[in-house]
Automatic annotation (TrEMBL):
Signal peptide from the UniProt entry: 1-23
Name of the featured protein: HlyD family efflux transporter periplasmic adaptor subunit
Organism, scientific name: Luteimonas viscosa
Compartments, record wording: Cell envelope
Gene3D superfamilies: 2.40.50.100, Helix hairpin bin
Domain Multidrug resistance protein MdtA-like alpha-helical hairpin, first and last residues per copy: 107-166
InterPro entries attached to this UniProt entry: MdtA-like_HH, UPF0194_transport
Keywords (A to Z) from UniProt: Coiled coil, Signal
GO cellular component: cell envelope
Length: 322
């Protein structure tokens, strides 16, 4: 066997050590850990009504406008009918004011004025006949006083009847019409609000997506505003990662990244940073100083290319830089 001279062996060992050193000193790409996510939207309960039908299952994909579940409509339909009746009442009240008094009502007011005028003439005539007798003390003074009061009362009734007839002839005041118009507008607004609430008793998907969860079951009665369904929407998922403080200064929106999906990074996708928070997560920045500041994390989102088939929740690692 040929023996290699010692100087050559020394040079070869030195070269191999240098290569190993270079390989060991190679910098690892900056990376952050996280999960695969979709945008989530919640569909709140428009009213505290019992769930009478559920048309989808969790995990099912639906199109925009597809019915998800239905709430009981008995109370909503009754409130809708009451709102419609109130609008009809206010509309007719406004029409009555605009049309003014009927001819029969005006004729009745004229007849009432004529009757009070006749009564007033009779009362005045009676007082005129009784007054001389009272002067001569042929009748009691109290009787004369009653006749004078009756004549004055009759004249007042004539004035009231004449004013009532004038009110009918002049019609309603513009302010009354304006108040009736405002009342009608308020009733119509209430009807629109009730119609919107009643129409939402059929809960439909506002966008195409996948049903992530249905917190309530058939027969449950969720409180107003509680999420009846949670949907995952969007054309593609994105990576939600927590960037360590030492990497934060070198990452900005629009930077390229590589997303390794799976516990072992089985799938590789090209990505781009679409959002990164300026405030740290978990720990307030003012509570950490010195070396402790390296414990800060910043929430970031990285959009993936051609990853529409991946489910949400998968673990991943994002490597930043070229």
């Amino acid at each position: 066997m040929t023996r290699i001279p010692f100087p050559h062996r020394l040079r070869a060992a030195s070269l191999l050590a240098g290569l190993l050193c270079l390989a060991g000193c190679g910098e690892e790409p900056a990376a952050a850990l996280g999960t695969l996510e979709y945008d989530r939207i919640a569909l709140p309960a428009p009213a505290a009504e019992r769930i009478v039908d559920i048309a989808v299952r969790e995990g099912e994909r639906v199109e925009a406008g597809a019915r998800i579940l239905t709430l009981e409509r008995t109370r909503g339909d009754a409130q809708q009918a009451a709102a419609e009746a109130d609008v009809a009442r206010q509309r007719e009240a406004l029409a009555e004011l605009r049309n003014g008094a009927r001819t029969e009502v005006v004729d009745q007011a004229r007849a009432n004025l004529a009757a009070t005028q006749a009564q007033a003439r009779d009362a005045r005539a009676y007082y005129a006949r009784l007054r001389p007798l009272g002067t001569r003390q042929l009748v009691a003074a109290a009787e004369v006083d009653r006749a004078r009061a009756a004549a004055g009362n009759a004249d007042a009734q004539v004035a009231a009847a004449r004013a009532a007839l004038a009110e009918l002839d002049n019609g309603v005041r513009p302010e009354q019409v304006a108040q009736a118009e405002a009342a009608l507008a308020a009733a119509e607004a209430q009807l629109r609000a009730q119609s919107a609430t009643t129409g939402r008793l059929d809960v439909v998907a506002p966008r195409a997506g996948r049903i992530d969860s249905l917190p309530y079951r058939l027969g449950d009665e969720a409180p107003v505003g509680a999420p009846l369904a949670v949907m995952l929407v969007g054309e593609a998922p994105y990576a939600r990662v927590y960037v360590p403080e030492p990497l934060r200064a070198g990452i900005d929106v629009g930077d390229a990244a590589t997303v390794l999906v799976g516990a072992e990074g089985e799938r590789r996708y090209d990505g781009r940073v679409r959002m990164i928070r300026s405030e740290p997560t978990f720990t307030p920045y003012y509570a950490l100083t010195g070396k402790d500041a390296a414990r800060l994390s910043y929430l970031a989102e990285v959009e993936l290319a051609d990853a529409a088939d991946l489910p949400a929740g998968l673990p991943l690692r994002v490597e930043f830089g070229p």
